[in-house]
Amino acid sequence: MLSAAALLVTVACGTEPAIQVAISVDRPPPDSTREATVAMGGRVVSASGGVGFAVRVAGGLAPVQVTTDRFGFWDLTVTVRRAQENVLTISAEGEDGAAEPLTFAVTHVSPLAVELSPDIRSETNSPTVRIAGSVTRTPRKRTPLVLTVSNGTEARTDTATTDGLFAVDVPLPTFNAVNTFAVVASDTLGDSSAVLTVQVRHDDVPPSVVGISPLGQGAATDGAVSVTFDEPVQGTLGVVDGRWTGTTISDTLFARAGQWPLIGETVVSDDGRTLRFAPETAFLPGAVHEITVADVTDLAGNAAADLPAPDACFVTQDGSEDAAVFLADASSDALAVAGATGAGGIPDVTGVHFGTVQASVGSIPSPGTTPEPVMIGRVEFAEPVTTRRGDP
Predict the structure, then answer these.
(1) pTM
(2) Is 267 exposed, middle or buried (0-12, 13-18, 19+ CB in 10 A)?
(3) pLDDT, tens digit (0-9, with 9 covering 90-100), for 288-339
(4) Distances (CA, A) of 166 to 7, 111, 144, 156, 158
(5) How far apart are CA 387 and CA 339, in angstroms?
(6) Are strands 323-328 and 373-381 parallel, antiparallel or unpaired?
């Protein structure tokens, strides 16, 4: 881009120097403006003095052409396109030939400026989305400001408040896809803001689990739990075990179960698809733990389905001798403890925990089998015991 006058150029032609046609721009247009028009002027120099040359400026709203005066001077005014850059090309042509064109970039700055709210949903499972924000005008005027939001097939409008605030609810034309909206402000004076675009992804499909760790038996007590989904998610994982009330043992004891959530922190992976839960204290050894996703949603707000117990349980390594695992029927939450004896008789129970797995009574699930689900309980005693299994 040139912003100064063009230089005159001479070339040798025989013994007489010939003056080429050149344009000088003594009053160049501004680099930016809020006005609808810009003025410029200069002079054409040629062998004939630049008289009668047609000076033309293109690149604005419409081309403008004037004729130089008897001294070769020219002046003109160009209407610029609003709220965008205008590349103005100045050319001159006459009997002596044509000048090398000059170009100037003039950016029109609209007096209307729209700022979109950071709270606009980038993903949603709703059939509509609210496009909100504010619009400012410099200088301030009293004429109404109208905001128009278009989704490509339908437009909705809202008149801004006296503070310039607006909110427009617009339908999403395509479900489970990215929708693009155009936002523009205008007033009765003919001013329009630059067009802003907003992209909103519609999604009404809940996230699916594609990976869980750990699973099965032998999980480390000092490990962590991770669940991976097929799309970015937000929320927290949970890990629960169970504890039965009751501290004494008779020949057969029934105790009612209650879930106890573990305390810990959930961290989201960089790609947003994996949640990792680390408990504040180590997992209990030899106990069944169940992973929960009750508070997990995708970015559109779709809740993750509950994990089925057989697919979301793990059993930690058992490092003690003073514990036994008991099985009960899945139709109740009762745990049967039968025939537990220690060196001095029936010892005190120091802790009981539970979980549910897909297993036959007395075994852990075998590959390829689908037995009925059962409850697994862990009972901790004050001393080593010998036990036998019993059904409630």
Answers:
(1) 0.57
(2) middle
(3) 677 888 789 999 999 988 776 556 777 777 655 444 444 444 444 444 444 5
(4) 52, 17, 12, 12, 6
(5) 5
(6) antiparallel
CB 138 within 8 A of CB 187: no
Residue type, 384: P
The strand pairing partners of 313, in sequence order, are 290
Looking at the DSSP assignment, which residues form a beta bridge with residue 133? 116, 166
d(CA 124, CA 238) in angstroms, rounded, equals 25
3-class secondary structure, 176: coil
Cα gap 184→203, rounded to integer Å:
26
DSSP 107: E
392, pLDDT greater than 50? no
Distance between CA 374 and CA 365 in Å, rounded?
10
Q: Report the first-to-last Cα separation within the chain, whole angstroms.
A: 91
Q: Which residue has the tokens 């015991």?
A: 385
- Give which of 47, 193, 45 is closest to 55, Cα–Cα: 45
Q: At 42, phi and psi to the nearest 5?
A: 180, -150
Query: Among the residues of 164-316, which ranges form H helices?
Result: none
Angle at 242 between CA 238 and CA 244, to 5 degrees: 160
Cα distances (angstroms) measured from residue 126 to each of 171, 206, 230, 308, 358: 9, 13, 20, 27, 37
**Beta-carbon contacts of residue 311 (< 8 Å; ≥ 6 apart):** 209, 212, 215
